[in-house]
UniProtKB/TrEMBL annotation:
Coiled-coil blocks: none
Cofactor(s) needed for function: Zn(2+)
Protein name: Alcohol dehydrogenase catalytic domain-containing protein
Origin organism lineage: Bacteria, Bacillati, Bacillota, Bacilli, Bacillales
Organism: Metabacillus idriensis
Family affiliation: Belongs to the zinc-containing alcohol dehydrogenase family.
Domain Enoyl reductase (ER): 10-339
């Protein structure tokens, strides 16, 4: 079968390869992939900023149909519509596994990073990571479950009360999903972007986000002050992974506000205004990926119509059209791109 795989570290080195069709082992499920989303981390991997266990088939956001089940799998059967967590292997013994924080297990292996992923016709997932798609969640929406679970994971680390002002920085797919989850939690939401984010900011308005602000044309701090009697925002969800976004987020918060870093930075070391964190007693939290507890609530949000993930899909390509997909993302033309095997 054809796969889209990272073959070497560094910029590029993404190639169509022929690999044998895999077979499920004990407690494993073979899934025929219908759609696989391109994540920001896939872009970082292609550009050489994010290291994976090469050679490996990329892709960790996907939906599909169970093609075959391995020994001792009774929860799923061929034909079931499913998605899967990215976790493929955990040690099961460390304190993080014992507390079900599988995303923090040091020995964890993830689909599309250390284990062959979804940019292929078939993949193998561990039974415990597979989830059935609810009735009203189609395959395109199902392929968005992983990024939605990542935003749910981040927002669960903050406290959002009815009427709180939430600022989401960065209107990419993660930001647009985070804004919808924050609204579902009862928040009043501002999402910010730049001039080249026009398509994404317009999409935010279509999705019913309260305020979509181009910070190169409008002063978002004035808006925040106007809405909070000058105090500042309750929660900032930084989803851009850009240094200016982080600086802006700390500035917009009120004293004792909450800052969650969701977006990945291109470099691990960045200038960060700790003086504001200290003087305003800001609570800063990081959020890595997602874990099992985030998936069923995320699927429920889509099934109940509280999050419209499918609306973010603007482009579809074959796995053989990586260059076209990459250009659509980098140009700002695309919001979310799905690949077909």
């Amino acid at each position: 079968m054809k796969t889209l795989s990272k073959t070497e570290q560094g910029f590029g080195h993404l190639a169509i390869q022929e690999k044998p069709v895999p077979s499920p082992g004990k407690n494993e499920v073979k899934i025929e992939v219908k759609y696989a989303g391109i994540c920001g981390s896939d872009i970082h991997t292609y550009e050489g900023h994010y290291r994976v266990a090469v050679p490996v088939t990329l892709g960790h956001e996907f939906s599909g149909v169970v093609a075959e089940v391995g020994e001792e799998v009774t929860e799923f059967k061929p034909g079931d519509r499913v998605t899967s967590e990215t976790t493929f292997y955990i040690c099961g013994e460390c304190r993080y596994c014992q507390s079900e924080d599988y995303n923090l297990c040091t020995l964890r292996k993830g689909l599309g990073t250390q284990q062959d992923g979804a940019f292929a016709k078939y993949l193998i997932a561990r039974k415990d990571s597979v989830h059935l798609l609810p009735e009203r969640v189609d395959f395109k929406s199902g392929a968005m479950t992983e990024p939605l679970a990542c935003t749910y994971h981040a927002i669960a680390k903050t406290e959002i009360n009815q009427g709180d002002l939430i600022v989401v920085i960065g209107p990419g797919p993660i930001g647009l999903l985070a804004a919808q989850v924050a609204k579902a939690r009862g928040g009043k939401v501002i999402i910010t972007g730049l001039t080249n984010d026009k398509i994404r900011l317009n999409k935010a308005k279509e999705l019913g986000i309260d305020y979509a602000v181009n910070t190169q044309e409008e002063n978002v701090k004035d808006l925040v002050n106007q809405l909070t009697d000058g105090y500042g925002a309750d929660v900032v969800l930084e989803c851009s992974g850009a240094v200016p976004g982080a600086k802006q987020g700390l500035d917009l918060l009120h004293k004792k506000g909450q800052y969650a870093q969701v977006g990945l930075f291109a470099k691990s070391e960045i200038p960060f205004d700790l003086e504001k964190v200290i003087q305003k007693e800001i609570r800063v939290v990081g959020s890595r990926s997602q874990n099992s507890a985030d998936w069923e609530p995320s699927l429920a949000l889509m099934n109940e119509g509280k999050v419209n993930a499918k609306a973010l899909v603007t482009h579809e390509f074959s796995i053989t059209q990586w260059n076209e997909a990459y250009q659509a993302i980098k140009s700002g033309e695309a919001i979310k791109v799905l690949l077909r095997p």
